[in-house]
């Protein structure tokens, strides 16, 4: 990809095209788009065209699988495409097609904002970009942000006549699609502009836009209604119609994802103003159940931005902190939070939760719930796709805003998160991510540095032994290392290790028994070791040291793994 030979770059595009359908390919899309940005702005049009064709293949695949591109990916791509719409550009035709297709894999309102961002670029041909913008708005319609309407109004003052005409046409389309809301913004910025729109573009001249509200738009409107019965009807509609027939409504759902997210938070705040009695309580439980299903079945949490995710966490953590003596209610909110954790990008979740822990450090119950959510993520972090540099950077920001104290519960939670991260990436790779995360920071984070050193010195050796125990090639040597380690660290609690390696822990006694049979030299100690693990209530006066270690490990195995091994599996 980064070879100086342009033929190899084009060949790289062909190779990547063949990998698009591979599992987990979407995780690499952001990196590919950054590479595309470099090549499209390079000096070789052949390479530029090849990489844009690659992007088109990726976008069509994402569209076909009903997936979405992230906000970062869209921010890289859309403004760059707008700059390539010049009439003399060799990229124009493919750039136009890509801009149309991206609106199917990213919320249209967000795409409109990014197109205007590209329109503001000095290298963008304004008239060409506005002409394509009109086509896109006709195709996708939907609301436009008031800030974007304001930005368009300013283009009415440019000297180019064609640009002014296209701005008038686009604003007329927006006015016809949004009605009074668009009119108010235009009138606020330039009353004469709206008069010009009314004079130059009669209703007959404007393309016909669908004025009928879409189904999900209607549902969102009902959720925002003050009437509690109308809200209930909207929730029943989501539960019985949208969720059960999600494939039918998926495209429309993507378009209104941000509006629906805001409506959910608004509905939550509204219904909790009612007493927890009778019908109202049942309605609250039903609402929480529907929200859980929305998070599970739809891709809402993968579509909205981090601000929406934080709003969700803040709302439901706050509600959970208020509940007392209502187990059913607690269970429903717990299910909402678990669904939120499981279906949100893990890096966004950690960022939002650490912010909430800072904001609510004086609110004991909210801080406890946010901490539990972080610990929940920590326990399953290896099952997701964490970005170690991003997480270390978040911990650094957290340390700068929080009092770093070993007895502070929040700090202990953050250290547990860092501990898991070291276990995932290894004792050598963690320093690379540490350097990457803190690159450009004015000073080194001594807390993180010391924590990592402590983890590697104290916690990592036993983790490495257990990893080797699960490797047949290294098993025998690791077993001897384990025996030596336990004699040296007799007071260490290994419950966290048994939880990470339940299968290895369960087989550990059999492994030690076989070791005792095959090793005459250590037979006495190991036999005592195994005997005490199996019978912790027995005493062996001849080997007091081994007895204490084995008794301790036996109890830890019984409490941590043996009684719960099926649950862990």
Automatic annotation (TrEMBL):
**One MF term in GO for this entry?**
microtubule plus-end binding
Which InterPro entries does the UniProt entry name for this protein?
Answer: ARM-like (IPR011989), ARM-type_fold (IPR016024), XMAP215 (IPR045110)
> What GO terms describe the biological role, i.e. biological process, of this protein?
establishment or maintenance of microtubule cytoskeleton polarity; microtubule polymerization; spindle organization
Its recorded name reads Uncharacterized protein
């Amino acid at each position: 990809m980064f070879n100086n030979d342009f033929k190899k770059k084009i060949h790289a595009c062909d190779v990547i095209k063949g990998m698009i359908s591979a599992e987990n390919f979407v995780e690499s899309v952001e990196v590919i788009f950054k590479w595309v940005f470099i090549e499209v702005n390079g000096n070789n049009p052949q390479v530029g065209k090849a990489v844009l064709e690659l992007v088109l293949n990726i976008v069509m695949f994402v569209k076909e699988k009903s997936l979405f591109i992230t906000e970062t990916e869209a921010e890289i791509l859309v403004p760059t495409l707008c700059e390539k719409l010049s009439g003399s550009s060799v990229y124009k035709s493919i750039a136009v097609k890509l801009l149309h297709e991206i609106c199917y894999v990213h919320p249209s309102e967000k795409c409109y904002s990014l197109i205007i961002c590209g329109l503001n670029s000095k290298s963008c041909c304004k008239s060409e970009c506005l002409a394509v913008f009109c086509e896109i708005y006709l195709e996708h319609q939907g609301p436009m942000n008031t800030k974007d309407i304001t930005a368009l109004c300013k283009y009415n003052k440019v000297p180019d006549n064609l640009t002014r005409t296209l701005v008038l046409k686009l604003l007329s389309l927006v006015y016809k699609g949004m009605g009074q809301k668009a009119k108010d913004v235009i009138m606020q910025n330039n009353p004469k502009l709206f008069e010009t729109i009314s004079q130059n573009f009669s209703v007959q001249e404007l393309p016909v836009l669908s004025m009928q509200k879409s189904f999900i738009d209607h549902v969102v409107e009902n959720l925002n209604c003050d009437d509690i019965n109308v809200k209930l009807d909207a929730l029943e509609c989501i539960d019985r119609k949208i969720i059960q027939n999600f494939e039918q409504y998926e495209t429309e759902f993507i378009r209104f994802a941000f509006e629906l997210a805001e409506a959910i938070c608004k509905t939550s705040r509204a219904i909790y103003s009612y007493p927890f009695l009778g019908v109202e309580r049942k309605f609250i439980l039903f609402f929480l159940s529907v929200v859980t299903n929305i998070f599970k079945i739809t891709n809402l949490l993968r579509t909205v931005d981090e601000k929406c995710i934080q709003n969700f966490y803040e709302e439901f953590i706050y509600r959970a902190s208020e509940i007392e003596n209502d187990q059913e209610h607690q269970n429903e909110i717990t299910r909402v939070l678990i669904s939120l954790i499981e279906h949100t990008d893990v890096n966004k979740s950690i960022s939002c939760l650490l912010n909430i822990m800072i904001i609510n450090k004086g609110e004991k119950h909210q801080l406890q719930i946010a901490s539990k959510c972080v610990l929940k993520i920590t326990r399953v972090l290896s099952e997701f796709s964490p970005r170690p540099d991003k997480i270390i950077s978040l911990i650094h920001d957290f340390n700068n805003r929080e009092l770093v104290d070993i007895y502070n519960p929040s700090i202990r939670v953050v250290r547990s998160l860092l501990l898991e991260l070291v276990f995932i990436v290894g004792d050598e790779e963690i320093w690379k991510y540490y350097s990457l995360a803190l690159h450009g920071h004015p000073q080194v984070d001594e807390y993180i540095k010391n924590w990592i050193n402590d983890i590697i010195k104290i916690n990592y050796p036993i983790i490495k032994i257990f990893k080797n125990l699960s490797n047949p090639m290294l098993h025998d040597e690791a077993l001897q290392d384990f025996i030596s380690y336990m004699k040296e660290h007799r007071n260490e609690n290994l419950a966290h290790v048994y939880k990470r390696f339940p299968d290895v822990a369960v087989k550990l006694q059999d492994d030690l028994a076989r070791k005792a049979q095959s090793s005459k030299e250590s037979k006495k100690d190991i036999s005592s070791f195994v005997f005490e693990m199996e019978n912790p209530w027995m005493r062996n006066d001849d080997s007091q040291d081994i007895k204490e270690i084995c008794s301790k490990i036996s109890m830890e195995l019984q409490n941590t793994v043996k009684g719960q091994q099926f649950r862990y599996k």
